[in-house]
Amino acid sequence: MEYRKLGHSGFKVPALSLGTGTFGGKGDFFGAWGASDVKEATRLVDIAIDAGMTMFDSADVYSGGAAEEILGAAIKGKRDKVIISTKATFRLGDGPNDVGSSRHHLTKSIEAALRRLGTDYIDLFQLHGFDALTPVEEVLQTLDGFVRAGKIRYLGVSNFSGWHLMKSLAAAEKYGLTRYVAHQAYYSLIGRDYEWELMPLALDQGVGAVVWSPLGWGRLTGKIRRGAPKPSVSRLNTAVVANSGPQVDDEYLFKVVDALEVVAQETGKTVPQVALNWVLQRPSVANVIVGARNEEQLRQNLGAVGWALTKAQIAQLDAASERPKIYPYWHQAGFAERNPFPT
Q: Which residue among 62, 154, 186, 194 is the active-site one?
């Protein structure tokens, strides 16, 4: 397993991490992802650790906290071998302060996450989304306090726009507070919006991408193909999941999958392994989160590392997945001499 620096920090993380959205399976949304109990989760964690995939990503809203509890049980006695990444901001409770990134909610959320995970520190804590109703100074001061107390080691965000992230980084610098070094963002061969602004920002400011849903919300598993029936087992078969994730035009999806199949045949790898390897080779990417309902899926995802696509294969996949840019990015692309694509 390759290890990479996490943004502008001295911390190294494995190229792949295991997401725990499949742990617990509570509710219609997460039940469609998977329902690993402690026994199965422990088996998956052990396989991951043996392969060098020592980072595990969770969030308080995953199965209403059950995913963190199961992860905590699965890593019991192995805390010194693993990296824990988790998140909070979204609503978890009915009260007016049970949501957001206020000092009140973050303090409550982080302390609860520590209890569920059975640990006294979190390696990487990320805001699950931007809270426009709480001053960024309050958010940063709260998180900085947890870092200074030793309860959090590194900070990150998730699903921020460029100005959200840059405003936060500027405030951290202004007040001498701990900076964000990671951005957990959606990025895949069928979701390349990250490249337009967030990738250049990440490279300029030293923020490593921790990629979620690198298989395009389950569309690049190799099971969805032109002219083939829908797979019988897929999160996309559940309306609440399919409708809440990124939407993709069928013809565009099939065009990308066609290109993936060609490269898969050339490399002797599977379609999802090729799709994951493409993401792993993109600028600014520090870590790619993969999910697994079972041991078979986990081992297949582990096959995405240890090899590399050729420049010609990357170019082929780039061409198949290229999409028209929105303004001002299409305009900036016309001046590549001054706005080159990140490398």
A: 62
Beta strands in the chain (DSSP E): 3-5, 12-14, 16-19, 55-57, 83-88, 122-127, 152-158, 180-186, 208-212, 285-290
What are the backbone angles phi and psi of residue 66, rounded to the nearest 5°?
A: -65, -35
Residues near 141 by Cβ (< 8 Å), separated by ≥ 6? 103, 175, 177
Across residues 73-94, what is the average pLDDT?
97
Known catalytic membership, residue 327: no
Classify domain 3-333 at the CATH superfamily level.
NADP-dependent oxidoreductase domain (3.20.20.100)
* Residue 28 reports pLDDT greater than 90: no
d(CA 161, CA 117): 29
What's the whole-model pTM score? 0.95
Per-residue pLDDT tens for 273-327? 999 999 999 999 999 999 998 999 999 999 999 999 999 999 999 999 999 999 9
Listed by start position, the domains of the chain span 3-333
